[in-house]
Write a structure and sequence with these properties.
This protein is an alpha+beta fold. The chain has two domains: 197 residues, Ribosomal Protein S5, domain 2 (2-Layer Sandwich); 174 residues, GHMP kinase, C-terminal domain (Alpha-Beta Plaits, 2-Layer Sandwich), CATH 3.30.70. It has eleven helices and 13 strands. It has a six-stranded mixed beta sheet. Helix 4 runs antiparallel to helix 5. The radius of gyration is 21 Å and the shape is globular. Bound molecules: adenosine-5'-diphosphate and magnesium ion. Magnesium ion binds next to helix 3.
Length: 385
């Protein structure tokens, strides 16, 4: 059953009447371009088939009442009490979006309250951006119900602001733009400096390639220190280099300032500089019809995230090694790191071997292997019903 149907049923069960509408938005897989978004850089995500749906109706009692099929209990919040940082737990994502939209469009929005029922098949904390899927589905719902006529860039910005200022996770704009702007059958080249988004057909099917995703089962919380610390290190490195952001740096500039940066900031900055180049090289290769050649860039991205940016974990390294050993053209961790998922680019004929090799890394750890799933570019956020 689709997330949209589940959200509708949960709404009916909880609130005793059908919702006024149902909206959904997808998780995303970032093919390449990790930890580049908050450095004004490039990324190449696509929307995945897994989605989060929100069934919504206005209320008249001034309450914001939320339920999620993935969480216990009911959240009940006064619509007039919504201020920055006032909501804790999972409801901070959807209510943060309402708060962020109010910051732009006025305090009075939905002062009479809202009922929301959420359902999702995007795994949480797996690097597939369940957070943006939830934010973007909510933003689409509020935009339609409130007749706000905000465009998708503005809705993405509201989602990011919710995550940054209500949840307290200093993430970039990649996830929200991917969820709202991805074409149904292609990846999206994002220039995170201006938010420019260009469809890039990948040509994987024609090249006999598939993308597998495996959840390591090691889960992170982006509000924890590691992500924020990396972000701060990038800002300091940019200051030392005298550039507005690491987007403007290059390897020659890094070499010039090697001493002043010190070994740690040098490596952090080198990841961002080389990762931006890998995104653009990937786009060039797929446009030239050389999709099979991008495997090396994907694996180089993993090595850089592991060695220079130090956000991988042994469980992800093991999946990547196993996939490559079984014939994947390239593999890497995806998402912010410290756990989450890994992807592998696999010739279709080798899917069973690569899947089995990945499963073997879990057997070696003595934990049950999660399903290794194939993902293809899928539809962006929309109204379901
Ligand atoms: P990711 O975006 O990689 O899945 P995050 O830590 O950024 O991981 O976001 C996961 C958090 O988003 C969850 O811990 C929860 O608070 C919230 N969330 C995501 N999906 C749902 C859902 N269906 N119901 C309730 N909360 C959700
Ligand atoms: Mg997230």
């Amino acid at each position: 059953m689709s997330a949209g149907t589940l959200a509708r049923e949960l709404f009916l069960e909880t609130f005793g009447e059908p919702p006024q509408g149902v909206w959904s938005s997808p998780g995303r897989l970032n093919l390449i371009g990790e930890h580049t978004d908050y450095n004004d850089g490039f990324a190449l995500p696509f929307a995945i088939p897994q989605r989060t749906a929100v069934a919504v109706s206005p209320r008249s009692d001034g309450r914001l009442v939320l339920v999620s099929a993935q969480r216990q209990g009911v959240v009940d919040f006064a619509a007039s009490a919504l201020t920055r940082g006032s909501v804790e737990g999972w409801a901070a994502y959807p209510l943060g979006v309402l708060w962020a939209i109010r910051e732009v469009r006025g305090e009075h929005l939905f002062a009479e309250g809202l009922s929301l029922a959420i359902a999702s098949d995007v795994p949480t904390g797996a690097g597939l951006s369940s957070s943006a899927a939830l934010e973007c589905a909510t933003a689409l719902a509020l935009n339609d119900l409130g007749h706000l006529r905000l465009n998708r860039h503005q809705l993405a910005a509201a989602g990011r602001r919710a995550e940054n200022e209500m949840v307290g996770a200093p993430t970039g704009i990649l996830d929200q733009l991917a969820s709202l702007l991805s074409p149904s059958d292609a990846a999206l080249l994002l220039d995170c400096r201006g938010g420019e988004a260009t469809p890039v057909p990948l040509g994987f099917a024609a090249a006999g390639l598939a993308v597998l995703v495996a959840d390591s089962g090691v889960h992170h919380n982006l509000a924890d220190g590691g992500y924020a610390q990396r972000r701060a290190q990038c800002e300091v490195a940019a200051q030392v280099l005298g550039v507005a952001s690491l987007r403007d740096a290059n390897l020659a500039l890094l070499e010039e300032h090697r001493e002043r940066l010190g070994p740690l900031l040098f490596r952090r900055a080198r990841h961002v500089v080389t990762e931006n180049a890998r995104v653009l090289d990937t786009v060039r290769l797929v446009r030239e019809g050389e999709a099979r050649e991008i495997g090396g860039l994907i694996s180089a991205s993993h090595a850089s995230l592991r060695d220079d940016f130090e956000v991988s974990v042994p469980e992800l390294d093991a999946i990547v090694e196993a996939a490559n050993g079984a014939g994947a053209l390239g593999a890497r961790m995806v998402g912010g790191g410290f756990g989450g998922s890994a992807l592998a680019l696999v010739p279709r004929g080798l899917l069973p071997e690569v899947g089995a090799a990945i499963a073997g890394t879990f057997a070696a750890r003595g934990v049950p292997a999660p399903p290794v799933v194939e993902v293809v570019p899928s539809a962006p956020g929309h109204r379901d019903s």
